[in-house]
Design goal:
single chain; alpha/beta; D-Maltodextrin-Binding Protein, domain 2; seven-stranded mixed sheet; six-stranded mixed sheet; 13 helices; 13 strands
Length: about 350
């Protein structure tokens, strides 16, 4: 059947209905795609998908698509997709984040678009907003509770004769591998971490004395953790709260010590990709990650320290004190040489 010709009244009604529908839809969803692709560490996928992303998805009305891998792999993806990025937000270690910023792969964050940026600790904001830390997993010494029921009071315990063949260390290829080397430099020089980090040759000298106590050096952390949980190893240097304490809560016979010399801040950065396909969604997602609500979930579920001072720590939460964060520019500049020296010393 032939349709009647549209009248001026019918056209006007149709146009008004379309405008009303457009106004009713959230601006975020009108202007940009609903999916938000977020890159991050594969190891965080479980608790992020279970506890964090559903809250953000409900708050923002979008769907988080998580691409889990390692920081270096995410950096390669950002390089390969520079002309047409697929990820809008990436969670990466600070030293890798710095490389991405220097290569022009990140978009600077601003308090006008990410209001919580102005509410977190100033030390958690890098290069005037190039990226921010949304949490601080802290690193100390993991230990087997059956073998060491009184814990580990000092990093010096790693060097004690009783620990011969019982210590597991992370490789310097892993970010957490830096901490034992820094401890060794501080022990050898007698200087605080802030100064000892620039005297790593002294650290390698002290590290050589640790070699008889080393059972293995790992690049795969979960596999090495089995040695600690079985009791074949008694201590693991440079371990961090967002893995070890989760295992503790699950009933594994392990715990994490905060030695008297102080603990370290594992780098947990969040950034917006330059040319992100969903820029306003990226800003909103990052703002949520910096909020007290999301950080409180991370504190409870992954045993990290918050960077937003408004977060209330849960009852029984052990606060190890303010963790030390190194000069990541210095680390990036020297890491290749340190790794070569590490291989020579630990061979």
């Amino acid at each position: 059947m032939r349709q009647p010709a549209p009248t001026r009244r019918r056209v006007l009604q149709t146009s008004l209905a379309a405008i009303a529908g457009s106004l009713a839809a959230p601006a975020l969803l009108r202007a940009e795609p609903r999916d938000l692709v977020v890159g991050g560490a594969a190891g965080m996928a479980g608790y992020m998908k279970q506890f964090v992303f559903p809250v953000i998805e409900k708050q923002l009305g979008l769907k988080v698509v998580f691409d889990g891998t390692r920081s270096l792999v995410n950096l390669e993806k950002l390089r390969a997709d520079k002309g047409a990025p697929k990820m809008s937000v990436v969670l990466m270690d600070d030293p890798i984040m710095m490389i991405a910023w220097e290569e022009g792969l990140l978009a600077k964050l601003s308090p006008s678009k990410v209001p919580n940026l102005g509410k977190i600790k100033p030390a958690a904001i890098h290069l005037d907003g190039a990226w921010a830390n949304y949490q601080q997993p802290w690193a100390g010494v993991a230990y087997n509770k059956k073998a060491l029921p009184h814990g580990v009071a000092s990093y010096a315990a790693l060097w004690e004769p009783a620990a011969k063949g019982k210590v597991v260390l992370p490789s310097l290829q892993n970010t957490e591998g830096l901490w034992t080397l820094l401890v060794a430099a501080a022990m050898e020089t007698g200087k605080p971490y802030a100064e000892a980090q620039y005297q790593m040759d002294a650290g390698f000298k002290r590290l050589a004395a640790l070699k008889p106590n080393v059972l293995t050096v790992y690049t795969n952390q979960p596999q090495a953790e089995n040695l600690l949980e079985s009791g074949e190893a008694t201590m693991m240097g440079g371990q961090f709260s967002s893995y070890t304490l989760i295992r503790t809560a699950a009933g594994a016979p392990v715990d994490l010590a905060a030695p008297k010399e102080g603990v370290f801040a594992m780098p947990s950065g969040i950034c917006k990709v330059k040319g992100a396909p969903n820029e306003s969604g990226a800003d909103a997602f990052i703002d949520a990650f910096l909020s007290p609500e999301i950080q409180a979930i991370l504190v409870e579920k992954s045993y990290v320290l918050p960077t937003n001072p408004a977060v209330t720590l849960p009852a029984g939460f052990i606060n190890p004190g303010d963790p030390f964060a190194p000069d990541w520019a210095n680390v990036n500049k020297n890491r290749e040489g340190w790794l070569q020296k590490w291989n020579e010393v630990m061979a």
